[in-house]
Specification:
With 92 residues, this protein is mainly α. Helices cover 76% and strands 0% of the residues.
Length: 92
């Protein structure tokens, strides 16, 4: 709810508390990472997305969110590399 309302500081606290109860939830890690991305904290966002992907490597939403976060921070070469790696993974 707080995330939808763009109350990212409160959303971050809620997702952290939820992760204490369920630290292996790829969806929660993705949501926390998206919260960091919306707060313009790219490093923490990428770290959260990587944890989500370590828990569920085929989690497309986290893969796309990494690309969006990098794109929003003008890291275009990293976006292209990520897209290439995802496409190679899909067709391999």
């Amino acid at each position: 709810m707080h995330f939808s309302l763009r109350e990212f500081e409160v959303a971050e606290e809620c997702f952290r508390e939820c992760l204490k109860l369920n630290p292996h939830s790829h969806a929660l890690w993705n949501k926390l990472a998206a919260t960091y991305a919306n707060r313009m904290n790219l490093d923490k966002a990428l770290q959260g997305y990587k944890i989500a992907l370590s828990l569920y490597p085929q989690y497309t939403r986290a893969q796309v969110n990494i690309a969006l976060a990098l794109d929003n921070h003008n890291h275009y070469q990293r976006v292209l590399l990520l897209i290439y790696l995802v496409v190679c993974f899909i067709f391999y």
